[in-house]
């Protein structure tokens, strides 16, 4: 218990409070809001390219795009020679900038069959705008991938609230919000321990709220026309939130990861007739025909499974041992799993092949995986152009933002991504992101140290490490002990009080060192895993902190074993 | 020469074309019709998912899929009047009355349990809400069309609506003991029903009043839409069959009294272990009884049970079925039915009726299923030996004329959806009986507590 | 006058009878010498004999084609009927469990992880309602065993007749080990793979620690040769393991997942014990390895689900046959309490799914008798064996077959149980519908 608290403290330090003032430290007030980007390959929109082009940005807007633009004297000129400029990416559905609420102390609810609406997860009147945090680390995580705008929704269960479209830049929620109350967000998620706890109760409650809203709207209308002698309609904010949906003015963004949930949502829609965007799909490949027939806007999940071959490499040794005895059952199972992985990875390609278009939902996906997953989708057969459209023009249109977002055209908001190589290539780095005309500059990543399973290195000694968390760096040390018969163990030190925690799952495979330790993030148990490559006295790799994400880490050996 | 090649080509193409879905001919089997006796060396012709002819030496259009059932037994597809197969979630255990929820909203067509039931000759089942609440959710009669991904395609279209009620220990434990909310006793259980039905009557009256007022006043305000009340009203109108989890004779008698008082007459008791004690009353009411062949003693209210329950009920004129309530038991309902021959000496047809025409009657689908008759749905199970023999092995199971289980041609691994994250499928070991009717309750009641 | 006396007689009789019915659990068994004549006798070990079987002094006195009927013997005409040896269930909780959900009536799971000193026999309730219910289906003998934890206690073999546990005891005991499991306890078991692995490792460590101590205890106890001051310290758990490490009684190792079976095979090889594997649900995956280790297996229930979603639907049905085919000595069990009566049907399914009737019958008679080292006493119809047998009008595995007579330890047991009594009372209930 003591151990987890100490490490918990260590990590809380690095994830929560530092961020706000760390950023203030770095910022220098900008001199001008006029920029000229020169000598780049400009992809103005999917399929359209200007070689050696220029862009003029002024007061947050794209002022001009072309082979050459006039350069005002107050402009800051950025030479992006041989780089590539894309329209800024748009998250079709996400919670970027919306911090996960802290686990509340469990409320004592006397009658779980009739809980208050907020406990039941029924808060359609709530706006995500009130929940935004401009310094949430997720904003920088997504921005450095090239995302500049997002349709964001609250955390919650059945009806968490209304979505808004935000820019992934700005120092306050007010600055970020591009449009508020742009969607009603819903999930087939039951509440914890109270009604509605199950999918079937959520479905029932949905129908009931919808019909009640219809009644209430009619009642209000009638009352407005002629209140005399009529029972006064009582105010109900929950039902009122449905009115624009009933009027077909506000779309319901309904998540449905599995094929089963997707069919359930479609059935509910067919029954009630609300405007729908089907979001977070992971298994659309099972129902391509139905998706086509229905024609609802789609958002595919960017969370896709990893291929097995890549993962297996480190376990190569064990596999060899087992290869001695061929096991047809294991082979068959592996084959089916491989097929399943491929199907999920190919969802975008399959749907695109069928003539469907879609944006992407980034709910549930780790930011560190986003680019890899996009690349995998392309490997599986969807064109780069279509992926780019799914990140730009399609979500812009779906969200009713085509006049502001999605392409590099005069008059649109200056949201753009600049990479040193074409974005959809393994080696590309995002070098600049403009959000609302404000630049964010990024370093090119050094080439990653390469793993080598046959390398023989020693991990023993004391190591310093620095985790690169957006907006700050977090440092500490760990010690690794290796005894004669290959036994390996270690400890990690807390920077504040110097106390030590035991490392778990310490494995050295070739030059690849990995270990983990448990950590209690305010009641939520999670695992922090290091995965680094040792090169002489240097280490480099990643740290995964539960669902917070994956971060780069580097360090060096500061002490040799005694 | 050229024409020969053409002919050959045609032949190949013809064999490529899939046989007409839902059309086949079963040749030369011993046909157990259940309602019209046993027919030796008889054929069954199926077209478009329906039984078209039953007779000797039937022929079918060329290319019709033909099954040689020589030496085999052909019976109506088995129907399970009580199961929790193919469901994502069984209990909305948060309230003693949850009439508005409907398991049809949470069907799981990917449940490999459906296939395993097919491998036991079961073609349809009654996917039920659990028994945590006195008035649970509405249930769904499903056909075992394993292979579809759309949950809606499992539904047996046109089957009457049904709802789960529950008496005794389960609702008392969940709400009374668990939360200090009525019912804690069998007295309280009765009052939950009376309250619910009475409130529904008030709701119905308010609706009626509104309908009348509306004719003269366009601004009439309707009563607030309430799905729970809507459902209860549908029960009172006779649109929904009650299937009630029950054990003790006294509580069974109680619900019949309540139903009489509220004019409800579509009632089938489930489990009903002490049904044999009130068999004359059940017969008099016209209530069905869907029982276990021999399960008992797993809780106090089934301690005074007997494996002769089905026989006593049948012989007293109660429409009786044998059900599974369990994903293992559902695989050998034919064997469960056979136990009534040891415990009470039922005839072959009486025993088979317990898993075919009788559950069909209890679910209100006997017009379409439950026996082999011309015009009925082609839901058929083919066995290697008489299905009441312990040595009988199901060979093929047909739903709407489509072979959904085939002992010879099916691969071992019949999962429809493979979890990409799962390297090796988990190993699930046999456990002592669990109360399937209480599935999901524990999580909702005690999650995070000791 | 006569009619009055008659009437009084009848009402008195009725009064007596009703009183008796209230007090009685089942009708009383009778003893003596019995001659079962004109029977088909399935001896199991010596083929089928047509003729007579004589029961005397609790034993099978003789079997033969044309035996003289001993004087004073009760003759039971078994024309058209078949005699089978009493069926043996290799794993139950019979007598230890009365009402499933009422924990205070459940006596098979004591507190503690390693409690081999817990004696199942101690807690056997001879008057459990399930016992008559079971034996009228031809099951005369069962292993009743504790469960839960790593070493829940000592199992016993009991015959299903007697008024004290001692009277029922059938000369066989074994310490139960639940081998650390990598499997899930049903679909409600939502532990992570890691948690399962941790629990498994912890249990294995516990098991090994206890055995290390047990061997030490044995060494000290043996060296002490009865000298009080040299005896090991009081430790009932380790004392209960003495006969195990001295190989005087076997261990019944409950193990099911293929991986765990392989691990258990390595474990028992190190330990040098008399071992019986029980459960063995995934035995078909590693049948050759079990056969090579020559470890007998008690598997079941046959009527259960495959262990994995990806498995063929009938894997549990065919498991016993696969093990048998690989050369493993296989007996069956129900692993049940109130429905041990389904043992013959479990055997029927094993027979249908590849084992064949003959081997399936052996798997519930002579094979378990051999596994328990009791094949000189039970498991077949042979002269000198305990008279545990039943008489049927057909195949004992077929549900429609009726049991006509039942003998346990030579007692003629009326075919009576609460289930039958309720049938008799309620088939034509009086009063019927009228008030």
TrEMBL record, chain A:
Q: Which residues form the Amidohydrolase-related domain?
A: 338-437
Tell me which UniProt keywords the record has, alphabetically: Hydrolase, Signal
Pfam families recorded: Amidohydro_1
Q: This protein is called what? A: Amidohydrolase
Q: Name one GO molecular function term.
A: hydrolase activity, acting on carbon-nitrogen (but not peptide) bonds
The organism is Flavilitoribacter nigricans (strain ATCC 23147 / DSM 23189 / NBRC 102662 / NCIMB 1420 / SS-2)
Query: What domain of life?
Result: Bacteria
The record's PANTHER family line, in alphabetical order, gives: ALPHA-D-RIBOSE 1-METHYLPHOSPHONATE 5-TRIPHOSPHATE DIPHOSPHATASE
Residues annotated as signal peptide = 1-22
For bias kind Basic and acidic residues, which ranges apply? 100-111
Q: Region Disordered: which residues?
A: 96-123, 307-339
TrEMBL record, chain B:
Q: From the Swiss-Prot or TrEMBL record, what is one GO molecular function term?
A: hydrolase activity, acting on carbon-nitrogen (but not peptide) bonds
> What protein name applies here?
Amidohydrolase
Record SUPFAM superfamilies? Composite domain of metallo-dependent hydrolases, Metallo-dependent hydrolases
Tell me the ranges covered by the Amidohydrolase-related domain, including all copies: 313-401
Classification from the root reads: Bacteria, Pseudomonadati, Bacteroidota, Saprospiria, Saprospirales
Name the domain of life this protein comes from: Bacteria
Keywords tagged on the record = Hydrolase
Extract the InterPro entries matched here. Answer: Amidohydro-rel, Metal-dep_hydrolase_composite, Metal_Hydrolase, Metallo-dep_Hydrolase
Q: Which Pfam families does the UniProt record give?
A: Amidohydro_1 (PF01979)
Automatic annotation (TrEMBL), chain C:
Record's Pfam families?
Answer: Amidohydro_1 (PF01979)
Where is the Amidohydrolase-related domain positioned along the sequence? 311-406
Record's protein name: Amidohydrolase
Q: Name one GO molecular function term.
A: hydrolase activity, acting on carbon-nitrogen (but not peptide) bonds
Q: Which keywords has UniProt assigned to this entry?
A: Hydrolase, Signal
Q: Look up keyword Glycoprotein and say if it applies.
A: no
Q: List the SUPFAM superfamilies.
A: Composite domain of metallo-dependent hydrolases (SSF51338), Metallo-dependent hydrolases (SSF51556)
Per the UniProt entry, the signal peptide is: 1-23
Acyltransferase as a keyword of this entry, yes or no, is no
> What InterPro entries does its record include?
Amidohydro-rel, Metal-dep_hydrolase_composite, Metal_Hydrolase, Metallo-dep_Hydrolase
